[in-house]
């Protein structure tokens, strides 16, 4: 069981209980005093906007990148897989970095490495392309693990709403990168390097807005908490597998959907636009679905509905007439926005306190993204070997079925059973 339920005298500043409340599970929530919460909210939004452009900006120009750098189909598949794999490999480092420097300072530092990674992949040939992609993916993985814990800590009564806002920011960043990269390349005399490099700018802007948080929280991390037992908890694994499986479908879309549509006869500009529209409509469902889920007895109904929308949209993009692709892109986006938002919500809703939420986030996004990386790699291998859409349809169906099964388990209203206490 999670402990403690009373406040030890030696708690650090961050963990002092202010306006303590008892939630449905009988566990005290922790509400630290916020300085200028609007600035924190703006910072969260701008940081969130930067967690997808490094991924979604590449797929519309993947053909140009592959031709310029001499990439085979397999190497192109590895390129789309590498940053996702790094999300999983480096995400578990986030709690350790937060203990050293604090969550806020860690995010500030990692925004710098994210910008460097985006720039590096445009230089130094194949080495820079792969090294920069890895650095960008690792940076996104660390930040993505830390943000849900901050939401749980600073907005405990608005977890679903704030998760929706955070997801909306992710969708906005991904949509802008997917839709504007090809026009930017055309404007820059067909320079894909310049079109990809511009996405370092939002990371630097987010750093400027986020920087005040590093001063506000500078005394907030002198204490350490022990969270033990996640790897033995079945619910923690169900949340982790659900996160990984739905992420696999998301990164398949980010990495391969424009290429698939181009193979179906669409132009690069139109394929990127369809991806951008699909991601943009995720803003709607990412806000609405968690709110609807909070009104249900548990989160299984919205999970089932969003999985159904995702598989319908994916199969429509593969096999429906091309003049109906806009409809299927919207359907896919509505499903994926709600599904991802629910996965993020579960990290907080299944955790009894912010410390458990941070560790569950590290587990779910670490192991989950490592699993998710197999999706884009599998698509690359299938496309390289078969040049057919039917194996892709089968792959999408199998992943969706597994996502539904894990969602039905993770969506039940309960908390992970772990030990959580200050050291």
Description:
The chain crosses the membrane at residues 38-55, 75-94, 106-124, 130-151, 163-185, 191-211, 235-257, 269-291, 303-320, 326-349, 356-377, 389-411. This is MFS transporter. GO terms for molecular function: transmembrane transporter activity. The protein is an all-alpha fold and 423 residues long. It has a single domain (35-422), classed as Growth Hormone, Chain: A (Up-down Bundle), CATH 1.20.1250.20. The protein contains 18 helices and 4 strands. It has helices spanning 37-49, 53-56, 62-69, 73-90, 94-101, 103-120, 125-154, 159-187, 192-197, 201-216, 234-263, 268-280, 282-295, 300-319, 325-349, 354-372, 374-385, 390-410, and strands at residues 21-22, 28-29, 225-228, 419-422. The strands form 2 sheets. A two-stranded antiparallel sheet has the order 1-2. The protein is globular, with a radius of gyration of 21 Å. The two termini are 17 Å apart. The model is unreliable at 1-34 and 218-223 (pLDDT under 50).
SSE layout:
Elements: E1 21-22, E2 28-29, H1 37-49, H2 53-56, H3 62-69, H4 73-90, H5 94-101, H6 103-120, H7 125-154, H8 159-187, H9 192-197, H10 201-216, E3 225-228, H11 234-263, H12 268-280, H13 282-295, H14 300-319, H15 325-349, H16 354-372, H17 374-385, H18 390-410, E4 419-422
Antiparallel strand pairs: 1-2, 3-4
Helix pairs in contact: 1-8, 1-10, 4-7, 4-16, 4-17, 5-6, 6-7, 6-10, 7-15, 7-16, 8-12, 8-13, 8-15, 11-12, 11-15, 11-16, 11-17, 11-18, 12-15, 13-15, 14-15, 14-18, 15-16
């Amino acid at each position: 069981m999670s402990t403690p339920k009373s406040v030890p005298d030696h708690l650090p500043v961050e963990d002092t209980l202010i306006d303590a409340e008892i939630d449905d599970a009988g566990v005290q929530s922790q509400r630290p005093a916020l300085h200028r919460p609007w600035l924190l909210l703006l910072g969260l939004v701008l940081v969130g906007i930067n967690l997808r452009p490094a991924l979604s900006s590449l797929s519309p120009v993947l053909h140009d990148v592959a031709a310029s750098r001499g990439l085979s189909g397999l190497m192109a598949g590895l390129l789309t897989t590498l940053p996702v794999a790094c999300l999983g490999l480096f995400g578990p480092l986030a709690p350790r970095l937060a203990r050293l420097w604090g969550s806020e300072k860690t995010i500030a530092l990692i925004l710098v490495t994210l910008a460097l990674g985006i720039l590096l992949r445009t230089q130094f040939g194949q080495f820079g392309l792969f090294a920069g992609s890895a650095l960008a993916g690792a940076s996104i993985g660390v930040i993505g693990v830390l943000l849900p814990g901050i939401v749980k800590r600073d907005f405990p009564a608005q977890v679903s709403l704030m998760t929706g806002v955070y997801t909306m920011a992710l969708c906005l960043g991904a949509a802008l990168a997917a839709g504007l990269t090809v026009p930017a390349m055309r404007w820059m005399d067909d320079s894909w390097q310049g079109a990809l490099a511009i996405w370092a700018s939002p990371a630097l802007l987010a750093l400027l807005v986020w920087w005040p948080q590093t001063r506000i929280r500078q005394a907030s991390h002198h204490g350490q908490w022990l969270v033990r037992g996640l790897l033995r908890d079945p619910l923690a694994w169900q949340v982790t597998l659900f996160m990984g499986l739905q992420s696999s479908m998301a990164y398949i879309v980010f990495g391969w959907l424009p290429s698939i549509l181009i193979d179906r006869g669409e132009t690069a500009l139109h394929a990127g636009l369809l991806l951008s529209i699909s991601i943009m409509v995720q803003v709607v469902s990412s806000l609405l679905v968690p709110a609807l889920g909070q009104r249900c007895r548990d989160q299984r109904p919205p999970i089932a509905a969003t999985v159904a929308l995702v598989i319908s949209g994916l199969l429509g993009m593969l096999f429906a007439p091309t003049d109906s692709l806009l409809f299927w892109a919207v359907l896919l986006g509505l499903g994926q926005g709600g599904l991802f938002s629910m996965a993020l919500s579960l990290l907080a809703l299944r955790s009894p306190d912010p410390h458990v939420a941070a560790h569950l986030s590290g587990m779910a996004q670490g192991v989950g993204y490592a699993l998710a990386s197999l999706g884009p790699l599998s698509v690359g291998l299938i496309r390289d070997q078969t040049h057919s859409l039917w194996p892709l349809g089968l792959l999408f169906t199998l992943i969706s079925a597994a996502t539904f099964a894990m969602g039905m388990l993770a969506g039940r209203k309960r908390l992970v059973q772990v030990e959580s206490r200050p050291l």
